[in-house]
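tool_log.txt
---
The assistant was asked to compare two proteins side by side. It first ran the structure predictor on the initial sequence, then on the second. Raw inputs and outputs are pasted verbatim so the downstream comparison step can read them without reformatting.
(1)
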Amino acid sequence: MDPGLVYDITIVDYLNFLCASGYNQKLIASLRNSKNPFICSKSHTTITDLNYPSITLPNLGLNAVNVTRIVTNVCKCQIT
């Protein structure tokens, strides 16, 4: 297998995305199958922070928005 480019993302990234989207702690807790409550990170304050190939820009209007994505190349290329 050669997945090529990978956007490394975890369940915590998705939960922070929900926090930034306005979901409250009680609703997020209902989505988790864990005894430990999830606390929203202060560093993920907007939904544009999700490291995912698609980019969501709500209420763009006339304002410029910067988004950052981190991509890893995992090519299993052979050098001959």
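(2)
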Amino acid sequence: MSRGSNSHSPFVLGFSAIERSFPRGVKASSDGYPPYNIERVLGDSAGPARLRVIIAVAGFTADQLEVVEQQEQLVIRGRQTEERERSHLHRGIATRQFQRVFLLGEAMQVAHASLDRGLLSVELTPRASKQD
């Protein structure tokens, strides 16, 4: 069974030539947690097009989330600690750690991250070209 084109791998963010150079599912988490979206945000007169990674992180606070750009990768980690003082009658929301890794093209950088209503939004922008 064919898996189709690799040109739209959600784990490689940047330019299409870079996206095509990696196999589909590079650095993929095996269980799909937490769910995420990747949006292309069109540029305007104020700046070029950019990318936005949005991850559903309900139950996490800002201090339990880590967003790091390292070695051309965007690494997003969530760490919660077990709350011992609660007695659950039903527990459907797990206290669960996660790590999501996305490969970034050389031309992309993390601009900023924000947490709003249980969604972590990470903005990626093109790097400024080096002028000597």
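---
observation on (2): The first helix runs from residue 16 to 20. The chain has one domain: 12-84+91-126.
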